[in-house]
């Protein structure tokens, strides 16, 4: 980071304890300036709101702030001293600048990563996104109000025409009234178009905000607490748009349409007198039918939604596991499960649709009966000269406004509402899952973390499992090279994930450099730990994207240098698209060995202090394995800690200390030579271990 502005923003983010996107500095460096104007350009490049410049001295609680000085450049100001000095942090060093009034102070809003925002339930996420757009909502409600008022105007127009124009032939009044009514209708048209456009624009923003939140939040869920049904969870997340559409139409209905229905009934009472009783009876009946209908469909919509989501899960699973399914003739098994789920969905959906049709018909009949009653009663009232002919016409138009669009949309609105409510409950379920780093807990952000680990009384079990991995006491010093061996399912990978801080123990504590791993900020931890899982998955994008995943772009030269060290370079040079080789969705497009090499290349570029490898060479040929091991050995600094899980003897020879695992415990721990000797002599074989029992409830609840 050569620019002082980049260093200053990084320091400010650190002081405010906010994670910056891994690639943020690239965008900032590309601006290529370091003068006073650079800040606005950097904010623009990263997509942040423009900085606010202070014209007066800031108050104490407003610090830390960015500060620019013509000779000293950019830094972070911590405070203003009494003698007009500024307390400064520049490149990690605290200092003071004289003449605070010569410096320019700026505040910037560094957005919190979406997942770091805290909400207790899904409804609040939508509410917050919607309420941030109060002006648009206010305009939409106002526009709906005016549109309804115009409906009132057209009914009054008819009344005037029937009562004043027709009996007297007052055509000049007719022209004035007609022109007025047409203007009102054109205004109504313009309002509707503007309202629709505004709502559409805001809907896109709300969708982006809400889905960004849920996407990041789902990604933050602790790996050991992730819901086992990935496809089903993905389907649950798809309910977002449905909820947003529902909430906006429900809001307009409740805030504008429903109050107007009541106003229309009052106007009918004013114009038509007693005949308003028809509406006063039919309207509550319609609402009552709607409420009963909503209750009746609740259970079935829930069932249909759950089975529909499971159906989606099955689809994802069958596509993902297509090779296994095809090779083992598993199509029939999956097809029968699919058909079962389809039947469940239909079984639940049919009564909902039937009830929806019935309620629609009831509403239609109710509308027609109330119309006939209104006209019949109205005719008697006209005959008895209680009301005018025009008033009856106006009342009939208004009754259509109450019954027609308003009650006509109720059945489908209610079905959508019930579906959305269930989607909200499912999203609530996702929000309840524990995340890696709770947003309300202050995270530790040490500048340096020595790659030393310390386990005390650690116990971990997968949700629902009785036993898991247990480590009473374990000390790993910086710079150690350790191999973990053991039988299939003995807990090696789980132990490695605990060391990587990807799983949190349900009992005990794991410290890194004497700090609780759970309390260290995620970005700091990931910057220090390089973890290569057994089944390294790639993500949709280019090979370059995968190699630099989560890293600041090191440039193609550095990438190729690292790729030469792992042997990935031969793939890159042989492929016509080189680093732009596209990895398809699901990480397909490369062989198992090439995927591991991609992960290793990334690891070499990241230069972590703690390297955790899970069977790194299991998929590699002898030559590539030798190349990878040589490069790895050469890249290790004296204080880099290397821990690898392996079944291969040649890898064990690379390390100075070996753990032998069995049943979730470390059975043997010692210098490589000694442990190997003990393993080879049957008399001194490791004692059989009892799997460490972890409280099942605790395990499941984690
Ligand atoms: N995601 C998971 N959910 C539930 N149980 C799991 C999960 N992953 C592993 N297990 C269980 O935990 C135990 C330890 O698994 P782990 O993957 O740590 O073993 P391992 O020693 O690495 O095995 P291998 O040599 O086959 O890779 C196994 O009994 C396994 O069934």
Structure description:
With 702 residues, the chain is α+β, with helices and mostly antiparallel strands. The protein has 3 domains: 4-111, Cathepsin B, Chain A, CATH 3.90.70; 117-432, Up-down Bundle (ABC transporter transmembrane region fold), CATH 1.20.1560.10; 453-537 and 600-701, P-loop containing nucleotide triphosphate hydrolases (Rossmann fold, 3-Layer(aba) Sandwich). Helices cover 57% and strands 13% of the residues. The chain contains 23 helices and 18 strands. The strands form 4 sheets. The chain has a 6-stranded antiparallel beta sheet, with helices on one face. Strands 12-15-16-9-17-18 form a 6-stranded mixed beta sheet, with helices on both faces. α2 packs across α3 (38-46), α6 runs antiparallel to α8 (239-272) and α8 runs antiparallel to α12 (389-408). It starts with a helix and ends with a helix.
Indicate the topology.
Blueprint: H1 4-15, H2 24-31, H3 38-46, E1 52-53, E2 65-69, E3 73-80, E4 86-90, E5 93-97, E6 104-107, H4 122-131, H5 134-168, H6 171-220, H7 230-237, H8 239-272, H9 276-320, H10 322-327, H11 331-383, H12 389-408, H13 410-432, E7 453-460, E8 469-476, E9 481-486, H14 492-499, E10 507-512, E11 515-516, H15 522-528, E12 529-532, E13 541-542, H16 543-547, H17 556-566, H18 569-574, E14 582-583, H19 592-606, E15 610-614, H20 622-635, E16 641-645, H21 649-652, E17 657-662, E18 665-671, H22 672-680, H23 696-701
Bound molecules: adenosine-5'-triphosphate.
Residues 462, 465, 486, 488-494, 534 line the site of adenosine-5'-triphosphate (ATP).
């Amino acid at each position: 980071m050569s620019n002082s502005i980049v260093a200053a923003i990084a320091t400010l983010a650190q002081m405010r304890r906010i994670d910056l996107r891994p690639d943020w500095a690239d965008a900032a460096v590309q601006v290529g300036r370091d003068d006073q104007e650079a800040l606005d350009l950097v904010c623009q490049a990263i997509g942040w709101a423009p900085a606010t410049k202070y014209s007066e001295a800031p108050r104490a609680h407003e610090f830390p702030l960015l500060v620019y000085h013509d000779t000293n450049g950019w830094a972070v100001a911590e405070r203003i001293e009494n003698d007009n000095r500024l307390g400064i942090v520049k490149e990690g060093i605290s200092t003071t600048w004289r003449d605070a009034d010569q410096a320019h102070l700026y505040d910037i809003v560094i957005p919190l990563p979406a997942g770091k925002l805290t909400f207790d339930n899904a409804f609040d996420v939508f509410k917050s996104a919607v309420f941030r757009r109060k002006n648009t909502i206010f305009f939409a409600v106002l526009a709906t109000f005016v549109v309804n008022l115009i409906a009132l105007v057209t009914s009054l127009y008819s009344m005037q025409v029937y009562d004043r124009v027709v009996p007297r032939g007052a055509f000049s009044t007719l022209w004035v009234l007609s022109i007025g009514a047409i203007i009102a209708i054109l205004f109504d048209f313009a309002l509707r178009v503007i309202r629709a456009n505004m709502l559409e624009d805001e809907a896109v923003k709300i969708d982006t905000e809400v889905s960004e939140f849920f996407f990041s939040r789902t990604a933050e869920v602790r790996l050991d607490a992730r819901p086992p049904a990935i496809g089903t969870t993905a389907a649950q997340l798809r309910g977002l748009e449905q909820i947003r559409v529902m909430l906006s139409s429900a809001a307009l209905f409740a805030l504008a349409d429903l109050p107007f229905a009541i106003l229309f009934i009052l106007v009918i009472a004013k114009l038509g007198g007693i005949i308003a009783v028809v509406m006063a009876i039919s309207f509550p009946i319609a609402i009552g039918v709607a409420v009963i209908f909503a209750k009746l469909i609740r259970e079935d919509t829930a069932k249909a939604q759950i089975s529909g989501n499971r159906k989606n899960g099955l689809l994802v699973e069958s596509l993902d596991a297509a090779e296994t399914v095809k090779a083992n003739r598993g199509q029939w098994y999956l097809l029968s499960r699919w058909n079962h789920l389809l039947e469940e969905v239909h079984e639940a959906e049919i009564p909902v649709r039937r009830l929806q049709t019935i309620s629609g018909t009831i509403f239609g009949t109710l509308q027609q009966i109330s119309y006939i009653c209104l006209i019949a009663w109205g005719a008697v009232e006209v005959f008895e000269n209680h009301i005018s002919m025009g008033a009856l016409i106006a009342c009939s138009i208004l009754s259509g406004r109450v019954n027609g669009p308003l009650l006509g949309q109720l059945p489908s609105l209610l079905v959508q509402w019930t579906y959305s409510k269930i989607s909200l409950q499912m999203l609530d379920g996702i929000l309840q899952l524990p995340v890696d780093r709770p947003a309300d807990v202050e995270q530790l952000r040490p500048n340096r973390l020595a790659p030393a680990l310390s386990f005390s009384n650690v116990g971990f079990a997968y949700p629902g499992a009785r036993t898991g991995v247990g480590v009473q006491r374990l000390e790993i010093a910086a710079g150690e090279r350790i191999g973990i061996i053991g039988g299939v399912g003995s807990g090696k990978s789980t132990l490695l994930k605990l060391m990587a801080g990807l799983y949190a123990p349900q009992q005990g504590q794991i410290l890194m450099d004497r700090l609780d791993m759970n309390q260290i900020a995620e970005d700091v931890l990931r910057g220090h730990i390089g973890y290569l899982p057994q089944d390294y998955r790639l993500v949709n994008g280019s090979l370059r994207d995968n190699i630099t995943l989560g890293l600041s772009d090191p440039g193609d030269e550095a990438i190729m240098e690292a790729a030469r060290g792992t042997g990935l370079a031969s793939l890159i040079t042989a492929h016509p698209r080189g680093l732009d080789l596209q990895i398809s969705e699901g990480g397909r497009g490369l062989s198992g060995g090439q995927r591991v090499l991609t992960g290793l290349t990334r690891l070499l570029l990241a230069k972590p202090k703690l390297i955790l490898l899970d069977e790194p060479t299991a998929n590699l040929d002898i030559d590539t394995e030798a190349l990878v091991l040589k490069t790895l050995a050469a890249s290790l600094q004296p204080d880099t800690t290397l821990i690898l899980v392996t079944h291969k003897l040649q890898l064990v020879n690379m390390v100075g200390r070996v753990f032998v695992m069995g049943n979730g415990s470390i059975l043997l721990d010692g210098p490589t030579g000694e442990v190997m000797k003990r393993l080879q002599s049957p008399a001194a074989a490791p004692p059989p271990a009892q799997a460490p029992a972890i409280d099942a409830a605790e395990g499941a609840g984690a």
